[in-house]
Every structure is written in structure tokens, then in C-alpha cells.
């Protein structure tokens, strides 16, 4: 059901953007609503449900549809809503996302039944790297033949699939996937095994080892203070 002023309910917004019936995909719905409810992320209007209920309808403004579209595409790579939102407001997280996608996806156009379109994927990476492009105003190209949120077997992002298949990853890929999954210990262990001629991987190797050493030193300091 559409509402006055062209504001849309989340199911109507998803239908308009992707021609997907949200009610038929619970796992996808559970990823969409945190984006809608996140304070300040989208332009939202609240309307009472009526009938004596204290609950409210959340309605999405037309000027937030591009941002929602892009967030959902990024969720196909990273299911964590907090990470997805950070890509919109932190250049460092946006660069990380672009580099992660480039390193792990560019030569892997089919992952557990989720097929990627090469040209659209490279354009998406280029757009993410172009920090002057406003992701709230310009649509990312859709590289998915079908959204991973729908097509993966019990998983909702390509990052989850790669984590589950970490045994088949290269050392550089393994380092990156653990780093992006906020597992600094595993990223550090993978970095110790990495010997690469790829500059971006060596940059991450140095960054991960620096962060790990700093975290270890801080933990040791706390232990000494408490003991």
C-alpha cells in the first residue's frame, strides 16, 4: 500500500527497487528493517497504525530510495548493517569495502549459486573508490543476477559464504576476509603467512600487524595494571 506524499512502506520500496515481495523472504526482511529503523540513516516519516495501537508505520521518503537501494546492494557483500551504514559516512570504510570486493570478487564471478555480472561489478568498485560520488544520490550498478540475500543457501551475504569456505581462499584473501570480519587474531595469523607482490595486500598486511601489536601491547598493559 502506498501513502500520501509518495512516501512508501518498506515492502513497497523494495518492490519498486527490486521487484521482490518482502513478505516472502524473512531473512531478507530481517536485514532491511534495521536499515529503515536506524535513526538518521534514511528520511523516514512515522504514521500511527490506528485502531488503538501505539505502534507506527515507518514510511520511506522518495529521496531515500537511492540510498536504500545502495545499502541493500552492499548488504549482498556485507550483511552487517553497521558496516554497511559506515560505508556511507566514513571514507576509510568505503575504501575498505571497495578493496575487499575488488580482491575477493573480481576473479570469482560465481559463489555458491550467486552469480555476478563482471561489468557491473567493476563499475560498482569504481564508484565506491570515487569518493566524490554521493552514495545517497547516485545508484550503484547492480552486479547480482539475484540478490545474495535471496539466493544463498541459508546465508545472506557473500562475505558469510567466503568465511564458511575459508579453506579454499588464498592467504591474501583469508587475511582480508578475517580483517573485514573484525577478527584481528585470525587476520594477523594469515598475514604472517602472506608473501605477495600485490601492493594493496602488503599495505593491509602492515596495517593488520601494526594493529595487532598495538592491541596486544594494550592488553599486556592492562594485565600488568590489574595484577
Characterize the structure shown.
The protein is built from eleven helices and four strands; from the N terminus they run ααββαααββαααααα. Helix 5 packs antiparallel against helix 9 (about 170-180). It is mainly alpha-helical. A two-stranded antiparallel ribbon has the order 1-2. A two-stranded antiparallel sheet has the order 3-4. The protein is globular. Helices cover about 55% and strands about 10% of the residues. It has helices at about 10-20, 25-35, 65-75, 80-90, 90-105, 120-130, 150, 160-165, 170-180, 185-190, 200-225; strands at about 45-50, 55-60, 110, 115. It starts with 9 loop residues before the first helix and ends with a helix.
Classification by helices and strands? mainly alpha
Q: Let me know the average pLDDT.
A: 89
Largest sheet: 2 strands, antiparallel
User: Element order, helices and strands?
Assistant: HHEEHHHEEHHHHHH
Unreliable runs, pLDDT <50, ≥5 residues? none
Amino acid at each position: 500500500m502506498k501513502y500520501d506524499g509518495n512516501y512508501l512502506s518498506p515492502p513497497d520500496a523494495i518492490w519498486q527497487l527490486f521487484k521482490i515481495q518482502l513478505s516472502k523472504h524473512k531473512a531478507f526482511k530481517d536485514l532491511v528493517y534495521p536499515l529503515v529503523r536506524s535513526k538518521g540513516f534514511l528520511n523516514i516519516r512515522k504514521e500511527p497504525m490506528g485502531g488503538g495501537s501505539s505502534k507506527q508505520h515507518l514510511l520511506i521518503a522518495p529521496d531515500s530510495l537511492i540510498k536504500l537501494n545502495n545499502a541493500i546492494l552492499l548488504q549482498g557483500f556485507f550483511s552487517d548493517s553497521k558496516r554497511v551504514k559506515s560505508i556511507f559516512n566514513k571514507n576509510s570504510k568505503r575504501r575498505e569495502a571497495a578493496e575487499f570486493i575488488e580482491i575477493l570478487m573480481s576473479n570469482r564471478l560465481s559463489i555458491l549459486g550467486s552469480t555476478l555480472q563482471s561489468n557491473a561489478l567493476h563499475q560498482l568498485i569504481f564508484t565506491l573508490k570515487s569518493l566524490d560520488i554521493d552514495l545517497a544520490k547516485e545508484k550503484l550498478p547492480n552486479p547480482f543476477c539475484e540478490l545474495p540475500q535471496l539466493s544463498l543457501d541459508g546465508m545472506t551475504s557473500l562475505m558469510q559464504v567466503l568465511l564458511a569456505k575459508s579453506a579454499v581462499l588464498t592467504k591474501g584473501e583469508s587475511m582480508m576476509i578475517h580483517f573485514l570480519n573484525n577478527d584481528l587474531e585470525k587476520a594477523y595469523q594469515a598475514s604472517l603467512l602472506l608473501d605477495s607482490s600485490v601492493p594493496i595486500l602488503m599495505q593491509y598486511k602492515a596495517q593488520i600487524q601494526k594493529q595487532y601489536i598495538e592491541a596486544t601491547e594494550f592488553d599486556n598493559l592492562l594485565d600488568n595494571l590489574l595484577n
